[in-house]
Amino acid sequence: MNAAKRPLRWASGIMLVLGTGHLLLLTLLAQEDVTGWVDRGVWAAVPLALADGDAGSPQNQLAFWAGPGSFAVPLILLGCLTWHLAGRGVAVPAGIGWGLAAWCFVGGVLLVPSPYFAGVVSGALIILAARKEPRPQATRTRQNDLP
Q1: Of 15, 61, 136, 147, which has the maximum CB count within 10 A?
Q2: DSSP string covering the chain, please?
Q3: 85-138 pLDDT, tens per residue?
Q4: Cα separation, 102 vs 119, whole angstroms
Q5: Could you tell me the maximum CA-CA distance found in the chain, to the nearest angstrom?
Q6: Is 136 in contact with 21 (CB distance < 8 Å)?
């Protein structure tokens, strides 16, 4: 097994659990708003135009921005991409890990208590995996090697 594969799989698992858990928790806590989107149409979640001078309820808009409009969907996608790349033996760049760790750290500090800090672990695992990945040796061509 590639030395970088295991940390990347753990990182992607953490991201998938965080994103999916966030959406499931929203569905349980704001079930009335979510079912209202199905009744009125998904476009009714956050209306773009004022309908009769009403921009929609703040609770409805909060449910949207806490759910499908939140970090959960991109985090799930990043987790799936990381899982896929780990399976192919491709290293995720350390910059992605640094960005994820910084974003989750700031989010965790601003929204205490929250599971944001688990995202810091995920970012650190991506950084660790990037450092474990063997770097290709530079190939030197000598005058003698040329035909």
Answers
A1: 15
A2: --TTHHHHHHHHHHHHHHHHHHHHHHHHHTHHHHHHHHHH-GGGSS-SS-BTTB---HHHHHHHHHTTTSSHHHHHHHHHHHHHHHHHTPPPPHHHHHHHHHHHHHHHHHSSS-THHHHHHHHHHHHHHHHHSPPPPPP---TTT--
A3: 999 988 899 999 999 999 999 989 998 888 889 999 999 999 999 988 766 554
A4: 9
A5: 82
A6: no
Tokens of 80: 């799936």
Instruction: Classify burial at 27, counting beta carbons within 10 Å of its beta carbon; exposed 0-12, middle 13-18, buried 19 or more.
Output: middle
Task: Please tell me the pTM assigned to this model.
Answer: 0.77
- Model pLDDT for residues 40-58, shown as the tens digit of each residue: 766 666 666 655 555 567 7
Residues 72 and 19 sit within 8 Å (Cβ to Cβ): yes
- Extract the tokens encoding 10: 């753990």
The C-alpha atoms of residue 28 and residue 103 are separated, in whole angstroms, by 26
Is the CB of residue 64 less than 8 Å from the CB of residue 34? no
